[in-house]
Specification:
Layout lengths: L27 E5 L2 E5 L17 E4 L8 E6 L2 E7 L2 H7 L2 H4 L27 E5 L10 E3 L7 E4 L4 E3 L20 E5 L2 E4 L17
Antiparallel strand pairs: 1-2, 1-3, 3-11, 4-5, 5-6, 7-8, 8-9, 10-11
The structure holds FE2/S2 (inorganic) cluster (FES).
The site of FE2/S2 (inorganic) cluster (FES) has 12 residues, from loops.
Length: 209
């Protein structure tokens, strides 16, 4: 990724050799409970003022470029929104990766039925994941590498998830990362906390947070 004057300056600057695929935190317009607020930067959960009472959060992802991720809070949970580039989508379908996953087909109820697919999302390029390890709830970190080298790492006890939030075998975490109910209000506006029209999903019924 080259420097782009239109791109907001991140609070935490990425190292130059990894700028194409990092957790950059971009400016976003966010609607919380129906009230539009401007979110200058979503850097940490502490920087947000969402509360447990707010049922939905609207996120403008128009400035989220390939390889970038933002973290927002919904119902007290960190939510990763990652723009997965083409190479990451290819990796998700690689048999070498799939064979190392505990629940590659998302059979456990950890996501809405409308995201029960190989990319675990409504649109392949945009992942929406609860960023809470299903072992004991630590927040995994996005680690980036070539081909199959990208994953979410939970530093607490070594659990690992792919970029669709699917848990690897032989790690402490038993389940894939949960996916919240969400829908697209517009092509670039995601509402977290609401299902698409005609769809149902009760987040409280998932196997494990
Ligand atoms: S909390 Fe993530 S591995 Fe234990």
């Amino acid at each position: 990724m080259t420097d782009d004057p239109s791109t907001p300056t991140p609070i935490i600057s990425p190292s130059p050799n990894r700028r194409s695929f990092l957790q950059l935190l971009t400016a976003s317009s966010v609607t919380v409970g129906g009230v539009i607020v401007v979110w200058p930067f979503i850097n940490s959960l502490n920087s947000q003022n969402t509360t447990l009472e707010q049922n939905f959060v609207d996120i403008d992802i128009s400035s989220l470029k390939a390889g970038q991720q933002i973290t927002v809070t919904w119902q007290g949970h960190p939510v990763f929104i990652l723009n997965r580039p083409a190479e990451a989508l290819q990796a998700l379908q690689d048999s070498n990766l799939v064979s190392r996953l505990r629940d590659p087909d998302s059979k456990e109820l950890q996501q809405p039925s409308y995201t029960q697919n190989w990319h675990r999302s409504i649109r392949p390029e945009t992942a929406v994941l609860i960023g809470s390890c299903t072992h004991l709830g630590c927040v995994p970190t996005l680690k980036l590498g070539a081909k199959l080298g990208s994953f979410y790492n939970c530093a607490c006890h070594g659990s690992r998830f792919d970029l669709a939030g699917r848990v690897y075998k032989s790690v402490p975490a038993p389940y894939n990362l949960p996916i919240p109910p969400y829908t697209y209000l517009k092509p670039n506006i995601i509402r977290i906390g609401e299902n698409p029209k005609g769809q149902e999903f009760d987040f409280t019924k998932i196997k494990q947070l």
